[in-house]
Amino acid sequence: MHRFSERMEESADEYVTSFGEQVQRKKERELLELERYADEIERKHYFSPFELAVLTHFPFIHQLYQESQKHFNTWLEISREKQQVRTVRCHGCPSVEHAVIDSQGNTYLINFEKTRDDSPAWDLAYFFRDSFEKGLWDNIDAYRWMTKYEKQFPLAEADRSLFLSHLLSPYSLVSPIKEYQTKRSRALEKEYVRLVELHVRLYKRLYGFSSHLYEQHYKQSPS
Predict the structure, then answer these.
(1) N or C: which end of the chain has fewer CB within 10 A?
(2) Cα 47 from chain centroid?
């Protein structure tokens, strides 16, 4: 689907810069809010289980923001230089739930309610994050699937950078923290701690996969 719908869109430097600044402001605002929350917790004499979980994992969350922004900046620089971006027809939420296999073993995607024209990085980040979250893959499986994908549809350096940026963007890890700050429910505290720990484990696997992909493949063979 990505290969047959590929288009190179001309993109003015002003548009790329504006988009980049918008994304950067959003990430900086989210990180600043988390830093304020961590400072608020540290001023207390006693921490709740959830607060302790946030403080324990905050350095890793901060690292995710930095890595995501680093790869996004690479995409931004390349897009500014070339003044064009690659778009494809994205499924929107590709996952095993949105695929069927016929009697001949052919696989088909279904449920195209969220389809749109966008970077292939969006579909790839969703697909890999969803598969890691469901425990379908380890790093070796993921690397093998990424290799298969790039044999069909090789990614340019800009696409790879945007993929890694989206993959490491910790929005699903930060989401339960924001939700807890709003509800402050002691009755649900155990569940929020579970969600944070679950997503930390997920992002540590994603971080390991992305680091291997970047160091062993992308860094040595930019395209």
Answers:
(1) C
(2) 30
Q: What is the pLDDT of residues 85-136, one digit of tens each?
A: 899 999 999 988 998 999 998 888 899 999 999 999 999 999 999 999 988 7
Q: Bin 37: left if φ > 0, else alpha if -120 < ψ < 50, else beta.
A: alpha
- Is 52:11 a contact under the CB 8 Å cutoff? no
What does the alpha-carbon distance between residue 19 and residue 73 come to, in Å, rounded to a whole number? Answer: 11
What is the phi/psi pair of residue 202, to 5°?
Answer: -60, -50
Judged by DSSP in three states, 197 sits in helix
Two tokens at 22? 């918008």
Q: List Cβ neighbours of 156 (8 Å cut-off, separation of 6 or more).
A: 78, 86, 223
Q: What is the dihedral of CA 108, 202, 114, 218, to 10 degrees?
A: -70
Q: Which residues contact 82 (CB under 8 A, 6 or more apart)?
A: 158
Q: What is the spatial distance between Cα 192 and Cα 185, in angstroms, rounded to a whole number?
A: 9
Asked if residues 82 and 156 have their Cβ atoms less than 8 Å apart, the reply is no
Residue 214's Cα: distance from chain center in Å?
15
Task: List pLDDT tens digits, range 61-95.
Answer: 999 999 999 999 999 999 888 888 899 999 999 98
